[in-house]
Amino acid sequence: MASIIEVKDLVKKYGDFTAVNGVSFSVGKGETFGILGPNGAGKTTTLEIIEGLKRPSAGTVILDGKNVDKETDAVKEVIGVQLQAVTFFENLNLAELIDTFAALYGRKVDPMQLLTEVELTDKAKSQAKELSGGQRQRLSIAIGLVNEPKVLFLDEPTTGLDPQARRHLWDLIRAIKARGTTVVITTHYMDEAEVLCDRVAIMDHGKIIELSTPKKLIEELLSTGFSKPVLQQQANLEDVFLNLTGHALRE
Amino acid sequence: MYTTYKLTVASLKMFLRSRQALFFTLFMPLMIMLIFGYIGFDKPTSIDVGLVTHNPDAATAQFISQIKQLPTFAIHEGTLDEEKSQLDQGNRSVILDIPDTTIPMAKGEAAQPITAYTNAGKAAESEAVLSILNQAINQMTLAQAHVSPIVAVEQQEVNSHNLRYIEFLLPGLIALSIMQMSVFSVAFVFTQYKEKGTLKRLLATPMKPIQFVAANTITRLIVSVAQAAIFIIMGIILFHAHVIGSYFLLFFIVVLGTAMFLGLGYTISGLAKTTDSVPAISNLIVFPMLFLGGTFFSISQMPWWLQMIAKFLPLTFFSTALRDVWTKGSGIEDTGWNILAMVIWAAILIYLATVTFRFQEKDSA
């Protein structure tokens, strides 16, 4: 598989603190790539260097054949991002927000079409601050898609969402992947990574400590003789919750 | 160009839909204009005079009715005790106790003197009342004696252009509200964008920071020109405060003043680390100018040491230049020094803005 992102020996230092410590990996075209790790592992910093928002202390990132540190603007043209905890402009409705962001790429889009994709058509005239958590993430993704990006970056998109909203967002991410868009996602929910990602990198203390497909990683662990105390349960509490409250979105 | 244009349209929409922004840029200054304009500081104030009468005889009654017609007196009638308690409370400048036989009816009858209780705290008003009263008595005495005064003053009215207070106030109020709009809207909005991650999100697009700054600057220039236009129109309609000088020069000064204070706004948003510190920093700079910038009263009324400071404030140059053009019809040759001073201030503040203002916190590679 041809790779679209090549990260090599990436280092990011803040004074004495090393947030990212020699990270290398590549992401294939059309792949959904997960970066997993506990809080403070360096996931977001790695992502922001690849997105051109932060400059690396050392190492290179090549995205779609362009060096991110040198051709930052050219890279920004072909990527879409969803950042953690962003507040969009106040006093603009969703359609106007999408229209404005498209203009940042010199583009004109049909806001309603994008809002349809993320199922927010009935909120077209609302403001971002009136949305629920899940709706806000969907808006964030819709805005990330205004330039029809080759790579979409999602930074902890489901943190803080209820189970229904999380599953709904998974469906949306799978639909984006189905169009051939490469997706890079960070999360600290393992079930999410298992469901969505083709390959995952597990980070801790600024380093990648494992990188493979979820299936292989589990097999490797089992082959070492690892076993959990087996509970013959065909369901967990989340299944109970969803069974009781239904899969329908609440917002 | 397309990007900047669309950003300007979006930013104009945001400004016009923000109730807070509209309150401070339009509503509040308009209220000040209406209140100060209709209070009318120009009208001579009447002096409160307490009048105590008893059972005046015919001649005295006539004298009393003449006093009541004196235009500068606001007459309050009551008993001596009532009026004295009003005087104690500071509501009267003078009480006149008029005896029943103030004006002698028959020759040889002794005239009883009027007793005047004066308010020591309102010496000037009391003085005026007494001298007006004395004048009235003198005139009456002359009339009774059938003698005409040896000297007469003939009054001739000349229509000179006296600056009314509203005409003094309006140009200053325009300068003031443009200062408020430029400083606060930029300082607040940009620190908020920074704090809430909006700027970071914008930086993840190919947009250049200068495009965003340009859009926000153009928006505020448009708003300030509209603001000035609204005030001028209101001034003309409500107060007949016609602009004597050139409209072109007036709006040139408006744009220059906006640029100057936008520089200050960007500087403050560069200095403020959080939204909470914006009002503190802004008010520290803007608040003294509200009173020292020559908006509400002329700086020539201040003590000399305060004048030395007030004279060099950016708002003072701005309001003086506008006032010169509006009320005196000054051209660039008359008020050019003020305009030059504004250019210098604008250069300083815009330079400070470029030094302090950052789109994001410095990220050392």
List the helices and strands and how they pair.
The complex is a heterodimer of chains A (251) and B (365).
Chain A: E1 3-14, E2 17-28, E3 32-36, H1 43-50, E4 58-63, E5 66-67, H2 72-78, E6 79-82, H3 94-104, H4 111-117, H5 133-144, E7 151-155, H6 163-178, E8 182-187, H7 190-196, E9 199-204, E10 207-212, H8 214-223, H9 237-245
Parallel strand pairs in A: 3-8, 3-9, 6-7, 7-8
Antiparallel strand pairs in A: 1-2, 1-4, 4-5, 9-10
Helix pairs in contact in A: 3-4, 5-6
Chain B: H1 2-17, H2 19-39, E1 47-52, H3 58-68, E2 73-77, H4 80-88, E3 94-97, E4 115-118, H5 123-144, H6 165-195, H7 198-203, H8 209-239, H9 247-271, H10 277-292, H11 304-310, H12 314-328, H13 332-356
Parallel strand pairs in B: 1-2, 1-3
Antiparallel strand pairs in B: 3-4
Number of helices of chain B: 13
- First-to-last CA distance of chain A: 40 Å
**Low-confidence parts of chain B:** none
Helix/sheet category of chain A: alpha/beta
The percent range for strand residues of chain A is: 25-35%
Mean pLDDT of chain B: 85
Global Rg of chain B: 30 Å
What gross morphology of chain B would you assign?
Answer: elongated
Number of strands of chain B: 4
Number of helical segments with 4 or more residues of chain A: 9
How far do the termini of chain B sit from each other? 31 Å
The helix/strand class of chain B is mainly alpha
Q: In this structure, how is the largest beta sheet of chain B organized? A: 4 strands, mixed
Largest interface (CB within 8 Å) is between: A-B, 31 and 23 residues
CA gyration radius of chain A, whole angstroms: 19 Å
**Proportion in β-strands of chain B:** 5-15%
Mean pLDDT, all residues of chain A: 89
